[in-house]
Design a protein that fits this description.
Aminoglycoside 3'-phosphotransferase, Chain: A, domain 2; two-stranded antiparallel ribbon; 9 helices
């Protein structure tokens, strides 16, 4: 949610006018995230979020907006795209796909409480259970094959040590048989900055632009690698236990999922180490941009490798 596309007040006012919104009071760029441009809009009718999609084509955005419409029918903490005067959710702004959302209540947290870990675990399990009812088919764009390609593309930027680590971890991951595990819709990016809370209650589950169909246990691992990590980059065992117990109060792991969770903790660390390296080496210019530290996931991967 960085700002790569700068917009004027006149451009925004014209855009939201198609939704019946008037009197734009003020607007500001949102710095969180790294993929799309987001603005917080304050209007007489309330607060809204305007998203300009920087790297997705219109048909791809439409798929995600359709997904969010479906999800919002099940729970009010999913952002639902608004429809304009022509009953369209997707429009064009500055020659890029764009959509408008009602701003949800709550704030993201830097450090989660035990109850917040439990709340998001329950929400994630419910998302996974809803998968059969959701019409959304998209393969994981960060599969092991894609990660292999990413490694090759950034290899020249890497130290000999880092390249060896990536190569060895990919070889390990390819050696693991995981294709038979339960699969379906996953968020794939469920970090703390993609969730809003009021107290310990989830009020916003955001940023589904990495959503895809893959192993549910991968989604759990992605979440654990962020929600249950302490300031030293190590697992908070109490939070991990609380998260896993809460998740399984809704959806119980199979024996194989439980056995392979350590493999996926490593895979999730690898995935985000690589994506952050890519973002750093292929940085895009913008008014507000955020560069997330790749080393955090490198160190987490090393810790997982030492334990598992």
């Amino acid at each position: 949610m960085s700002v790569y596309t700068s917009l004027s007040q006149a451009q925004i006012a014209q855009f939201i006018g198609s939704y019946g919104l008037t009197s734009l009071k003020q607007f500001s760029g949102i710095s969180a995230g790294i993929e799309n441009t987001n603005y917080l809009l304050e209007t007489v009718q309330g607060d809204f979020v305007l998203t300009v999609y920087e790297h997705l084509k219109a048909h791809e955005v439409s798929e995600y907006l359709c997904l969010m419409q479906q999800l919002s029918e099940a729970a009010d903490y999913y952002p639902c795209p608004l429809v304009d005067s022509k009953q369209q959710t997707l429009r064009v702004l500055s020659n890029k796909p764009a959509a408008l959302f009602k701003c949800l209540l709550g704030e993201s947290v830097a450090i989660a409480t035990l109850n917040q870990c439990r709340s998001i675990a329950v929400a994630l399990a419910r998302l996974h259970l809803s998968s059969p009812t959701i019409q959304f088919v998209k393969t994981n764009p960060r599969s092991l094959i894609d990660l292999q390609v990413s490694r090759q593309q950034i290899a020249r930027h890497l130290s000999t040590q880092d390249l060896a680590l990536l190569t060895d971890e990919l070889a390990y991951q390819f050696s693991q048989e995981t294709g038979y595990l339960a699969q379906g819709l996953i968020h794939a990016d469920l970090f703390k900055d993609n969730v809003l809370f009021v107290g310990d209650t989830v009020t916003g589950l955001l940023d589904f632009y990495a959503a895809c169909c893959d192993c549910f246990i991968l989604d759990v691992a992605v979440a654990l690698n962020d929600w249950c990590i302490n300031e030293q980059g190590r697992f908070d065992q109490e939070k991990q236990q609380a998260f896993l117990q809460a998740y399984q109060s809704v959806r119980v792991f199979s024996a194989d999922e439980e056995r392979l969770l350590p493999v996926f903790l490593r895979r999730a660390s690898l995935r985000f180490w690589l994506s952050r390296l890519e973002h750093r080496f292929k940085a895009r210019a913008g008014e507000i941009t955020q560069d997330k530290d790749p080393n955090a996931f490198k160190q987490l991967l090393l810790r997982h490798r030492a334990v598992f």
